[in-house]
Design brief:
- This protein has 2 domains: 221 residues, Rossmann fold (3-Layer(aba) Sandwich), CATH 3.40.50; 68 residues, Alpha-Beta Plaits, CATH 3.30.70.
- 32% of the residues lie in helices and 28% in strands.
- It is built from 10 helices and 14 strands.
- The strands form 3 sheets. It has a 6-stranded mixed sheet with strand order 6-7-8-3-9-10, sandwiched between helices. Strands 2-1-4-5 form a 4-stranded antiparallel sheet.
- Helix 3 runs parallel beside helix 5.
Length: 308
Amino acid sequence: MPSIVSVSNLSKTYAGGHRALKDVTLDIAAGEILALLGPNGAGKTTLISIICGIVNASSGSVTVAGHDIVADYRATRSMIGLVPQELTLGAFDTVWNTLCFSRGLFGHKPDPAYLEQLLRDLSLWEKKDSELMTLSGGMKRRVLIGKALSHQPSVLFLDEPTAGVDVELRKDMWALVRRLRESGVTIILTTHYIEEAEAIADRVGVINDGELLLVDDKLALMHKLGKRQLIVELEEAVGVVPDALGPWALDLSADGSRLTYTYDPRNTHTGISGLLQAIREAGLLLKDLKTTQSSLEDIFVNLVNTKQ
């Protein structure tokens, strides 16, 4: 799939000497949903601010659909929509006028039918004549998305789009993001919510301390870096793990009824067969077996901690 956004050796050092980005290289495919994960101060917002033309890079380059963001800034800016973290909206304007004005800023002719459908998709049509100051925080967040989409961009950046939004509205927004992707919009979102990336992203990038640690397909990432656990439930509780089971570094539950074995599913020999045989030879009776897979959150925490 061709790249619609290409970032090459991008770095940013602020006046105070803080190096927010360090030689970041990233290609974003047309039509994908990419989630950028990272702790506060990792460089996520700086990265998307540079791509969107809000912050100047110290070095490196960015292209959008083959256009350089500096040399062809008018062309690239018209292809990008940005939903910022902050609720940057006026107080007294109406929802409808806000979207109309935003569309006009990009030189687009009025299109009431498109804006009506957009507001309906955002569950805001009934609020089109409401002043922004009367809206809830969740509704204001959706107005920001409407503003970003008013000029029909092909690339949409969502910077912490569901911050401060309740769980039900968050899931509504996830559904909207999927519909946008189905219509051909490329979506890049930053998030603190690991389940958000796990629910809707095609690929996941992890940023920490200005470095892009990795970018990979979500499922491939969980397969490659995820650990699995075999949980063995015993018919009778034990006080300690038998010495014969020492090579498997088992964890014994507090009540002595479960043994947990953590292994790497990529290894040809996981050691499970030998473990089960050793358990029987130790005279322990099995009640049940089950396996669990590392979550994306487990992988993220491990990656960030190993780089600190």
